[in-house]
Amino acid sequence: MLQLYDSLSREKRLFVPGDPARVTMYVCGPTVYNHAHIGNFRAAVVFDLLFRLLRRRFGEGAVVYARNFTDIDDKIIKASKETGAPIAEITTKYARIYDEELSAFNCLAPTAKPAATGHIAEMIALTERLVAQGFAYAAKGHALFSVGKFADYGRLSGADADERLAGARVEIAPYKENAADFVLWKPSKADEPGWESPWGRGRPGWHLECSAMIEKVLGETIDIHGGGQDLKFPHHENEIAQSACAHSGAPLARYWLHNGFLNMGADKMSKSLGNVALPRDLLKKHHGETLRFALLSAQYRQPLEWTDDLIEQSKKQLDRFYRLLAEAAPDGEADIPESVVLPLEDDMNTPEAIAGLHELRDIAMQMEGEPKRRAAARLKAAGALMGFFASAPEAWFKWTPPSDGAALTAEAIEAMLAERTAARKAKDFKTSDRIRDALAAEGVIIEDGQSGATWRRV
RNA sequence: GGCCACGUGGCGGAGUGGUGACGCAGAGGUCUGCAAAACCUCGUACCCCGGUUCAAUUCCGGGCGUGGCCUCCA
Questions:
Q1: pTM exceeds 0.90 for this model
Q2: Which residue gives the smallest C-alpha to C1' distance to B12?
Q3: CA A338, C1' B60: Å apart?
Q4: How confident is the model at residue A169 (pLDDT cuts 50, 70, 90)?
Q5: Residue A167 — pLDDT band, cuts 50, 70, 90?
Q6: Residue A148 CA to B65 C1' — how many Å?
Q7: Which nucleotide has the shortest C1'-to-CA distance from A429?
Q8: Among the four A70, A196, A280, A294, which has the fewest Cβ within 10 Å?
């Protein structure tokens, strides 16, 4: 029984899809104009976990997960003007990097990755319908959604439009009939990209693409719509309004999920504050799986302090698991123990699930032989559900950060290890300890075991 | 100003009306030539003040503190 906290009803609800044979999920993806930051990745990783949970419960082929790329937007236009690079070049590049980096975080590829520029016709058609039905109007080259026509407006974010405006700091555009109305379509200047439309040459507003692409790729009412907490208003509020009005009131999504933020010290991590950590940089120093573990170390709706210490702690925990997997090669298929599945299906309580992994490790560690290998298989299966343990243990412990160009090669380490083994055999502990210290200084730890010495990187 | 979160031990972070998860770090021990790993043991944590209750960290009210959102985009 999968329970999810629905932001719209503000309660944890049993998840029941509209059609168990086709479970649909849409997650707001990045605007591809520069590198994503690790806070953006929290959403991607959290919904990757949910994707995995849904696939387990409903079947791999039964879950359709779409994550969009916003590839037309003022920030992209600005980046293009500043760098001189064509828009398509910028968006293609950053979309590719985003995908590559996410796969380093063990994220599965979404079923579909629709891009805004691939759905201009759908957006125009959706807007035409809204205008024809009186939910939207044209004004000075714009098409605007008339918020007053949608009674439920504000339900997701918990405030009606008038209240919002009372505290707003922004001037109201003169072409709006009502201050709260938002843009579906807006005119493009001559040097800006644009498409012909019934309202003149222009481009879509921010919110339109999601509604249009959801309709096209997934359907009128989807099961789950996800994104960061900051998207609740106005983005998701507007999506809800557009889609419901275009679909005779049919709700856009049955469940709305919003992940919390990463904090960097006192503040939310954000590009405008400049206090961001980029996966691009983090991946130079840390394994993607370590970063994934760090992102999942708090329940997804809670704020999470993003610190170097958190990354270190995550690495050490993964080491403990991998050590067991190295000791006892997992044997055969295994069911995923309830100690891990139950917390995950309870609104993705990842900290409790991780506690479950530790418990499985403790149990397995005390066994020997075949039972130990079966216990290891259970641990591995449980971790795999969360997107962990994707590496071979050997590779995990010998992994070198890409940034560490001066790192000792495996061959050099093996040579020193052989030297040390010879010294130990001769009871020359002074030499053997010197070699061990030298390796330790390079971040290589030696472990003397029953069957000889092994090494691993810190 | 409006709305929404959150405040747990050195750190990260669950959870619960009554037996104080889990991990990291730390301390002691077993093992080891010494280590590492593993294993065992330990840790006067629940922002403040009221209230409800036999009992509150957990429920209610207030306070303080922290964070987020408040549109087309300057």
A1: yes
A2: A310
A3: 36
A4: very low
A5: very low
A6: 38
A7: B33
A8: A196
- Tell me chain A's radius of gyration from C-alpha atoms: 26
Write out the residue range of the structural domain in which residue A274 sits.
264-398
Kindly report, residue by residue over A99-134, the tens digit of the pLDDT: 999 999 999 999 999 999 999 999 999 999 999 999
The answer to whether A294 touches A335, Cβ cutoff 8 Å, is: no
**Of all residues in chain A, what percent carry a pLDDT higher than 70?**
95
What does residue A327 show for φ and ψ, rounded to 5 degrees? -70, -40
- Within this chain, do residues A211 and A193 fall inside the same structural domain, yes or no? yes
Domain count, chain A: 3
- Cα–Cα nearest to A80, from A32, A29, A30: A32
C1' of B67 to CA of A73 (Å): 28
pLDDT at A21 over 50: yes
pLDDT digits (tens, 9 = 90+) for A72-101: 999 999 999 889 999 999 999 999 999 999
Nearest residue (Cα to C1') for B69? A230
Looking at A259, A276, A291, the residue that finishes a domain is A259
Distance B22 C1' – A2 CA (angstroms): 22
Q: Count other Cβ atoms within 10 Å, centred on residue A230.
A: 14
The residue lying closest to nucleotide B22, measuring its CA against C1', is: A355
pLDDT at position A168, please?
Answer: 47
Residue A317's nearest nucleotide, by CA–C1', is B23
CA of A217 to C1' of B63 (A): 50
CA-to-CA distance for A221 and A342, rounded, in angstroms? 28
A66 and A111, same structural domain?
A: yes
Please give the mean pLDDT across all residues of chain A.
91
CA A158 to C1' B54 (Å) is: 40
Phi-psi category of residue A227: left, alpha or beta, with phi > 0 → left and psi -120 to 50 → alpha: left
Å separating the CA of residue A134 from the C1' of nucleotide B29: 78
Q: Which protein residue lies nearest to nucleotide B70, measured between its Cα and the C1' atom? A: A164
pLDDT at A268: 63
For residue range A355-403, what is the model confidence (pLDDT) as tens digits? 999 999 999 999 999 999 999 999 999 999 999 999 999 999 999 988 7
User: Which bases of chain B are under 7 A from a protein CB atom?
Assistant: 1-6, 11-15, 21-25, 32-40, 66-74
Give CA–CA dist A77/A268, Å, rounded.
26
* A169, closest nucleotide (Cα–C1'): B70
H or E stretch at A241 = helix A237-246
CA of A353 to C1' of B34 (A): 38
Same domain for A180 and A288: no
Task: For residue A234, say if its preceding peptide bond is cis, omega within 30 degrees of 0.
Answer: yes
